[in-house]
Amino acid sequence: MSDKKTFYITTPIYYPSDNLHIGHAYTTVAADTMARYKKMRGFDTYFLTGSDEHGQKIQRRAHAAGKQPQEFVNEIIINFKHLWRVLEIDNDDFIRTTDEHHIRICQELFQKIYDQGDIYKSEYTGWYCTDCETFFTELQVGEGHVCPDCGRAVETMKEESYFFRMNKYADRWLQFMTDNPDFIRPESRRNEMINFVRQGLEDLCVSRTTFDWGIPVPFDQKHVIYVWFDALINYISALKGQGDGSLYEKFWPADVHLVGKDIIRFHTIIWPIMLMALDLPLPECVLGHGWVLIDSDKMSKSKGNVIDPIYLCEKYGVEAVRYFLMREMGYGLDCNYSEELLGRRINNDLANDYGNLLSRTTGMIEKFQGSVIEPPVEPTEFDAELIAMAKAIPEKFGRLMDKMEWANALSELWKLVNKANKYIDDAAPWALNKAGQQGKLSSVLYNMAEVLRFVTIMAAPVMPGLPKRVWRQLGIAEQTQLHTWESLEWGRLPAGTKISRGEPLFPRIDLAALAAEAKPEAPEAPAAPAMEPIAPTCTIDDFARLDLRVVKVLACEKVANTDKLLKFTLELGTEQRTVLSGIAEFYQPDELLGKNLVLIANLQPVKIRGIESQGMLLSAMEGKKLRVIEAPDMPSGAKIS
Ligand code: MSP
User: Fold this and answer.
1) The whole model's pTM is what?
2) CA 261 to centroid of ligand 1, rounded, Å
């Protein structure tokens, strides 16, 4: 048996009734990125995705479309598989819950739990949301009888059902969570789940009789197995149901179930308890990521705000879309999508930072050294710092990737890209060339090319199509030993390599044209100003994640070549922060000097026009009027709650 380390990662299996949008694409791209990264680190990986095809919702939609459910889902699955190909998803298997082997394993496991007395027959009386395929109590649906998750009307349900003795396992579950603090990630979700279980766990209704599009209960054919019980089994049936069972031996328990925050309860409470009842080992962890939001609202077909990933890939290229998704969503947090945000990321990170580094490097090697990478002969005074940083990045980047903090890992990697661009400005190879300092020139150009090799290797799991194009330009397409994680040793790039300059990899997006495209037509008669709609309800925990602080304005200036941006130097207790704010139309730079304002101090830093903005100043806006929020007479650093 091989002693190679294994890594098994899954996405949720998607409902075929929904148009897959960039929210779904996020989960799958993230899992793909992680699987590719682990493979690069030498793991034997298995990456599973698939489709969740049973249940009342699908049956109804199929009937509404005048089709049999199987025919209905078969057509949709073709689109799923096409989307994953466009997004360069390299999954090892695509399980469908209508696959024969899944049905067989699901029935076997249901039977096993029944035989040991953990499934019993009773009657269900309560509420059901068909869209979420979830049971709710009277208390949860409230007087309005709406689903607490999706807000749609729920249906009353009274039918004979089988129940799974969840309650019996509550203490064991709580003990497991205490012993395995990293099982539910991030921690905020773990606390939520623990509080939920502490309030008391009810047995779960696991069969239905009022429709038949599902897996029959093996010992009572009048019933079909509850769609979530059926769906969760996929993580095991995909391995166990095929071949000689060696896949299961090798890969179970899973290392990561990657899921959106809306379905974390199913994966961290119901699924572990099913596994406990089956006496099977539990996965290593469940990571609940946030949502991709549009204008701070969840994307959904019924709201008409879904964004088609295929359209974006065709317009901007798949690498840019994948990079955007992985860079934009912070660990466990929601992120906003707009075409403008995507355009900005492409322009700043890909075209300006990375793309420029490549075109400057290849351009200067072509111009000054006849397209040959010469050996580094004489270091400049700027070399040591750049090289030290490059040498340290693989470890830092790897640590963040292992923790699945993809946005932070990319941000760390881009520090090296920016450092290299600054290094070019400082070392000024054009001046070295002019002064005939060939020894120093060759060092600078070598270092630039080697940094590019480093960054490209590490960026490959996120943008798998990128390296091939870069290796061609750097002249190392055939030297595959230089494309691996193990080759991240400074200085492996061989001198004498002939480069081949190519087209820019990431063309800049014309943001002004994009804004004009997106601008809605002016209404004929302007209506009376309406108040912005109140955002969806958040919990006190959501609010507590923001660290709001009083800051004092020490300096403020306009950012060159922009109409909107002011650059603030702020005092935050004993620290200083640089923050950019798009309020130049409303304030002169000196107007706010010495004032105490309010800052979101723990907002992930962003780079705008090459300047890192470390937080956001709060302001109120109504129509064309904007005023910053002031906190007079409070010391800087004071916390706002
Ligand atoms: N079929 C169930 C999963 C069963 S797994 C045993 C399901 N399917 S789904 O198609 O509705 O959603 C699949 C995944 O997409 C979920 O993890 C969900 O959180 C994710 N997303 C759906 N919309 C999303 C966003 N707008 N943003 C990020 N992820 C989102 O649930």
Assistant:
1) 0.81
2) 9
For 620, the 3-state DSSP assignment is strand
Per-residue confidence band for 46, with pLDDT thresholds at 50, 70 and 90: very high
461 lines ligand 1 (CB under 6 A): no
pLDDT, one tens digit per residue, over 551-609 is: 999 999 988 877 788 998 999 998 899 999 888 888 888 889 889 999 999 887 877 77
Per-residue pLDDT band for 172 (boundaries 50, 70, 90) equals very high
For residue 97 and ligand 1, the question of a CB distance below 6 A is answered with no
Is residue 12 one of the residues assigned to a domain?
no
Mutate to test the pocket of ligand 1, among 9, 21, 24, 307 (most ligand atoms within 8 A of CB): 24
Helix, strand or coil, per DSSP, at residue 456: helix
Of the residues 433, 459, 487, which one is the last residue of a structural domain?
487
Specify the amino acid at residue 481.
Q
- Return the structure tokens found at 89: 């998803």
In a domain, 306, yes or no: no
85-103 average pLDDT score: 98
Task: Say yes or no: 611 and 541 in one domain.
Answer: yes
Specify if 353 maps to a domain.
yes
Q: How far apart are CA 364 and CA 219, in angstroms?
A: 74
Alpha carbon of 94 to ligand 1 centroid (Å): 16
Specify the number of domains making up the chain.
2
Ligand 1 centroid, distance to 148 Cα (angstroms): 16
- Please name which of 218, 111, 229, 222 lies closest in space to residue 166, comparing C-alpha atoms: 229
> Cβ-count burial of 222 within 10 angstroms (0-12 exposed, 13-18 middle, 19+ buried)?
exposed
Which whole number is the average pLDDT over 212-231?
Answer: 97
574 touches 552 (CB < 8 A): no
Lowest mean pLDDT among 69-73, 129-133, 546-550: 129-133
Ligand 1 contact, 173 CB (< 6 A): no
The CB of 607 under 6 Å from ligand 1? The reply is: no
The answer to whether the CB of 292 is under 6 A from ligand 1 is yes
